[in-house]
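1st attempt posting a full record on here, be nice pls
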Amino acid sequence: MINNTTEKEILNELYDRDLRSVKTDDIKINASGKIKVNNHKIPDPKLHQQISFIKSGIRILGYAALWWSIDIAAILLILAEVVGIGEELV
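the predicted structure (as tokens):
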């Protein structure tokens, strides 16, 4: 159960649009283009993907740097984790 909602109720909402708890009136788009549903910010999937690719690139460089310097590799891998935190905040 999620918030006192059964799995059956969730599946019914998915298949029957009239039963959905989120209605068009609950969706707001502000001047900067950010979408909110029931006053909750919706993540930007494109920006999330771009940051994820950057994080993955930094990680790959970090693991490749292990051949030359463990210090540089550690810094790059820590940087990738910091970027990962930013990724989740988008």
